[in-house]
Amino acid sequence: MIVPGYGGGSLADLPGSLLAALGLREPNTLALEPADRVCLFLVDGLGAELLRAHPGHAPFLAELAGRTLTAGFPSTTVTSLSSLGTGLTPGEHGMVGLMLAVPGTGHLFNCLRWTAPDGLVVQPEQWQPAATVYERAAQAGVQPVYVGPAAFEGSGLTRAVYRGVRYAAAESADERVARAHEALRESRRAHVTVYYGDLDAVGHMTGWGSDEWLQQLSIVDGMARRLAEGLPPGSALYVTADHGMVNATEKIDAESSPELMEGVALLGGEARARHVYARPGAAKQVLEAWRETLRDKAWVVSRQEAVDSGWFGPRVRDAWLERIGDVVAVPYGGVAVTTPSRHPIEARFIGYHGSLTAAEQHVPLLEVRT
Questions:
Q1: One domain for residues 329 and 232
Q2: Domain total for the chain?
Q3: How far from the centroid of its chain's Cα atoms is residue 301's Cα?
């Protein structure tokens, strides 16, 4: 088990360090060197262990100096983007999973797609109220720009974690590199984030290490090389990821397992990081059943045990506690706990993430300076 290294080497420590490198009065936990302009290349699903396994398909990245960070828990896009967008741990920003219970409603909320049952409205600024690092950068005179697909502009997740950026929509890899170079040259101090999600998307459907995934890895490597080649003087490029990935070798259908569903009101999270919300009075029974059924397959703990173990950070705000399941089940090895009738596409995945294994937690932080 890899417990995230909050406060010394996690994704939550990176945003403040980037702002400190740009001259803002922020904690420089990662001791990054000063720069006039910073470009963060965020590659969805580029785990450090995965990258090390295939240096031949990423020769540029393989040669870069860098270090390894931990993603945070759960090791999933929603949580990691929130940590990168706020500089806070999951326990502080409250985005503690993919599918979370909305307290008092009896419903689950998808924090990635920002979807909820009819009639339930979740305001991004209320669900994640903390100021973003981009707002802080703009107040200090640093132009924050986010380069990503047009479809994400104005989405609920973007509003929750990227408030304060100027969104530069770009679709192809070449377009994103070009928009990043333009943004870096626009002002004397700049903070530019470039997002690329296709590596993760392909990994889910075909598995990491597949031919299709390796093709995407080569595209990522080319993007990083071109981003570096076009950096203005006095700039720093950092390449990182939101999480890694594992390929499933065993899938457990929770919906077809009465012992897993008895006493359960809502089953949230995702296949490698389940939030299990119990019916009133059933939390102890549900905990015992999940522990017994998933023995030697998953770490299964109570909400309080997960909080006390620091999975979500040194502190969890009281307001966010009920977003965490009464039981938190975290598979290891190649196990995935799926819900095929409710989420059929996810159940067909090959690649998954969310857990506390090294393959999912470890992400690279690679650096190029001019």
A1: no
A2: 2
A3: 22
